[in-house]
Amino acid sequence: xxxxxxxxxxxxxxxFKHALQPVLDRDPAAAPEVVVQAIRLRMHLLRDLDLxxxxxxxxxxxxxxxADLPLRVFLRDVDxxxxxxxxxxxxxxxxxxxxxxxxxxxxxxHDRRYDAEAFLSLPHGGRSSPIVDAxxxxxxxxxxxxxxxxxxxxxx
Length: 156
Prior knowledge:
mainly alpha
């Protein structure tokens, strides 16, 4: 990762920690805008670091920021994007997702969907969630999933 990217990421991380503090302090004056700002900074930081928004990455980022740990500590144990060949093949993707779920102890269907969305670069909890749920349940084919994703400009 280039020094410029890391420098920008460190600055975004500092901003994230600052924005997160009123939320962690359960400050009654912390308006919803403060929470939204922390979420936006989290999203920008993960995107700038080219990391998926998996449950593990989100939880670890919040925990590291709450403990006032440096960005390098967060980066020691993060989920990375899956290779394109895995994303193009349903069997490989299912195996990778199952191994990931076992390694990260993702026990609920919601957590598995959350990370499937992250690896497919989809927004969480949006219009794509029922489609991903249907695919994970075997009610939708891999091809139909991708056809739907190509048709939906918000999901793509």
